[in-house]
Amino acid sequence: MGDKGPTIDEAVFCRRLKVFQERWKEDGKGFGKADGVTAVVVSGAASDENALRYLKSGALQLWLFGYELPDTLLAFTKEAMHVVTSGKKASLLQVLVDAARENAQVQLHVHKKEKAEDGSSQIAEVIKALEASGDPPLVGYPKDRVEGKLATVWATALKDSNLATADITSDFVEVMAVKDQGEITNAKRAAFLAARVLKDFVVPTIEGIIDEEKKTKHSDLARDAETHLMDPTKLEIKLRKENVDVAFYPLIQSGGKFDLKVTQTSDNSTLAYDVIMVALGARYNMYCANVARTYLVDPSKKQEAEYGALLAAQQAALSAMVEGAKLSSIAEVILQTIKDKGQEHLIPNLTKSFGHGMGLELRDSGTSLATKSAGTLRAGMVFNLAIGASGLQREAEGKTKFKDYAFWIADTVLIKPDRAAAEVLTQICPKVWSDVAYYFKDEAQDEGQDEPANGHAPDLDGMYEGKKTNLRSEGANFQAQEADRQRARNVQDALLKKVNEETLRSLNRARENGDDTSGATRKVSDVVTYRSMADLPQLRDFQIHVDTAREAVLVPLYGHLVPFHILCVRNISSNQDGDHAYIRLNFNFGPSFEPCTKDPQAMLLKELSFRTSDLRHASKAVQEIKGLRSQVNAREKERAERATLVQQEALNTRGRFLTLPDVWIRPNFGGKGRKMTGQLSAHQNGFRYTTPKQERLDIMYRNIKHAFFQPAKGEMITLLHFHLRNPIMVAKKKTADVQFYTEVMDVEQTLDVGRRSMYDPDEVEEEQREREQRQRINKQFLNFTKKVEQDIWQREFGDLDLEFEVPFRELMFDGVPHKSAVKLMPTVNCLVELTEQPFTCITLAEVNIVSLERVGFSLKHFDLAIVFKDLTRDVFKVDAVPSSSLDVIRDWLTGINIKWYESKINLNWKPILKNIVEDPEGFIESGGWDFLNQEGDSGDEEDEDEEGDVEFQPDSDSDAAAESSEDGDSSEDESLASEGSDDEAPDSDADSEEEEGMDWDELEEEAMREDRARDRSDADSDEEANKRKRKGGGGGGSGRSSKQRRR
């Protein structure tokens, strides 16, 4: 609404009025069963702002005018439209008279009712028009419970007129069922609002209640949810508050009391920690959307199987909801899927229908997804797809306080044209099992444990009375850790089959598709330097020349200047010998040189050497050839990279856009001078980065594979990072990673020479200023990411499932992925290192297995090798990972269902992957990746160690031990000799090693020489000490006494 009051969109009104008339006049389909309706009357109800109601009369008014007009009567004939209303509403509609006549070919008559009148005279005029509409006239009307003064007057006048009537409620639904683009936009925004409130408010609130064991009523939580639905700004959702409303009051149920109807209200019972059901409905510009989810705390295996069947049924229904499909077929698909999942016992407990059409009304009659429905799906229809089952009971007694439970999964769905897959408008609210199931009990406790027959555990404390035991294995923490380890081992064992099957499918797929080895570089054999002799330059000097324009080197051979293209030159060098210089020119040759493979029988020139007395010319020729070669190679490399680039769509810069100012880019644009900040703008279909020098870089949303937001916490920068599906060119280099960042503080700081106190006011103020600057920049980046996600990605690019991922710092570990030690952090979908270049971004969905190498108790570091599903890719190695991070990495990999192995050595992966690719079937038959499992070998080694410990008997004679200690050098030599003799028998390699070293006699002589040298050094040091003492007046007696003591 503006300052001039409400206005009606004339174009929308005329277009929809024309649709209404055309549907009425359509041959064989008109209104009413007898196809004889000559007039349609819709009576509006009285105004009630506090009532949440759905009426066909109100829906038609909203559809035509965009507003609900209380106490207004609409009467239609096939040529005219009559409106009975009062005051301002009549003036509002009067401006539509000309537009209706010209654009919809309908004559609009507005009958204004004065404030003191009850509308009898105006209704009498309408009755006359209805009586003249046909012979005989038949008035159609929707079945509504309409109350109000004008509605009462109309009902009386209709009864007195003896006009025949017919119920055309289903025809109203049919007219408004297919939504235009404006209506679809409203439905999407309503669905987005409901899903966001459920995902970002209700679910975190329930999780907090359970974690903190609070007592919260259903009604209180529902009231808070309604507050967030009515005020989207609480979740920073950019929807106008005056345009939103609730489609129904939020419904939250738990504790075994469930009713799968949105007309129910949340009771005052306390939220129970068992099965929690949440349903939310929102309206935007009066268009409805709803979403429902079921959350389970410590569920049983049976509940998991039942939920999986219902979720699979919903997914099957979504696949079947295409244009032209029958409504009944959707219900049949749902029932068949539940049967296929082995959950037939759920069928009697299912809801009667599995959803219905939606729009201006929460439920459009006649569009139910039931087995007896007769309608068909049309593009542009919006449905509530809801699958629910109630009256279920948990199978085991005593497991939870409440036995009864129910399931409810509901989403808002849009039917797409051309039989495309239906679009789920509430997709951002997750519903997979891992997102709705919460486990707080141990698995053994949940599944039940055997107890003694007498009902209580034996008194173990009495067996060890008087003895205090602190065994780690008896602690609750240790038992829980052991249970977690066993659970992780079970998960890893189950993953082996899955990984082997995925490997075989990938290899077979690659074999079917074949390898694309076609290069994009220019072939040397296709290069033409001079097309004829006339193109050769006329040079008088018979010496080496460089033709920069033709990219050629002309060298003198047998009295002629012979040209060679610079791509044929491998390198050039020169050296000076007195008054002469020698120039050596090497050419490309061998299997890697393309002309060699093209003509294997050809004879190639390998090198040429020249001698010249012109030293200046020699130096100049060498520099020119090197410069030309470097320039041409760089250009060819860039050309090859550009040839492999995927053509991107054009950036749409029209309309409003979001900006993030004062950011740097990596990799930078290059060039001279200090780096300059630029501005990152988010447009309708992509980002654009611009600098003050008008340098630009466009990144399309559909080319973004992963997006990351990493706030500054211990780092010097806050950054946004984009990992692309297809590389782009940045500063003439191809890259798949682009980053925009801002320094939260100066990287270089001047250090004062003097010491500064920690209580120095200037230093405290400086630290506070740095903290505030860091928080401000982090918040600025965070707001930008939220706006991009909510206003662009989730609304217009929901199919891409894009979101800014934030690294998990609690899972951070050190490592060396390239050349320097960095900190790697997992995200939801990746393993990343975004602070130092080159960046690391590993997509976890592309990882096949992970090998933890050099793992041992005595080693401080180990290596991490990542093997991809595409076995043609090189294995990615992260070296020097601290052993303290081993358990964290194991748990993380198990949690994301990635198979991992441990080994004590580094593996040579290239031949391993080569053998797997060459014989995939043999690899799977031999056990697949299980060849990396070394648990069996470790068991054998432990047995051998135990045997060795038993065989070892220490010497009990302490005197003998003392003697061996005193004569350590000789015993060490004897042990070396014995080891050498033992090795000579079984291993021939030991003989060769022994021959390379010194024999026993040589070792004996070397030891004697070292002893003599040591004695001489001792004597020299004693003599020098005596001289110093005599010079210092210490006396000779003192010197002799000291010497004797030393002996």
UniProtKB/TrEMBL annotation:
Residue ranges with Basic and acidic residues bias: 1009-1019
Q: Which residues form the FACT complex subunit SPT16 N-terminal lobe domain?
A: 8-172
> What GO molecular functions are on record for this protein?
nucleosome binding
Name its cellular compartments. Answer: Nucleus; Chromosome
Acidic residues biased stretches = 937-1008
Q: Which domain of life is it from?
A: Eukaryota
**Cited SUPFAM superfamilies:** Creatinase/aminopeptidase
Q: Any keyword Nucleotide-binding?
A: no
Q: What keyword terms does UniProt attach to this protein? A: Chromosome, Coiled coil, DNA damage, DNA repair, DNA replication, Nucleus, Transcription, Transcription regulation
Q: Which residues cross the membrane?
A: none
Q: Which residues form the Histone chaperone RTT106/FACT complex subunit SPT16-like middle domain?
A: 813-903
Region annotated Disordered, chain positions:
445-466, 926-1047
Q: Which GO terms describe its biological process?
A: DNA repair; DNA replication; transcription elongation by RNA polymerase II
Every copy of the FACT complex subunit SPT16 middle domain together lies at 544-689
Concerning Gene3D superfamilies, the annotation shows:
2.30.29.150, Creatinase/methionine aminopeptidase superfamily (3.90.230.10), Creatinase/prolidase N-terminal domain (3.40.350.10), FACT complex subunit Spt16p/Cdc68p (2.30.29.210), Pleckstrin-homology domain (PH domain)/Phosphotyrosine-binding domain (PTB) (2.30.29.30)
User: Record's SMART domains?
Assistant: FACT-Spt16_Nlob, Rtt106, SPT16
What Gene Ontology terms describe where this protein resides (cellular component)?
FACT complex
Q: Does the keyword Manganese apply?
A: no
Pfam families cross-referenced by the UniProt entry? FACT-Spt16_Nlob, Peptidase_M24, PH_SPT16, Rttp106-like_middle, SPT16, SPT16_C
UniProt-listed PANTHER family: CDC68 RELATED, FACT COMPLEX SUBUNIT SPT16
Indicate the family of this protein: Belongs to the peptidase M24 family. SPT16 subfamily.
Question: According to its UniProt entry, what is the function of this protein?
Answer: Component of the FACT complex, a general chromatin factor that acts to reorganize nucleosomes. The FACT complex is involved in multiple processes that require DNA as a template such as mRNA elongation, DNA replication and DNA repair. During transcription elongation the FACT complex acts as a histone chaperone that both destabilizes and restores nucleosomal structure.
Description of how the protein assembles with itself and partners: Component of the FACT complex.
Protein name, UniProt field = FACT complex subunit
Q: Which organism is it from?
A: Symbiochloris irregularis
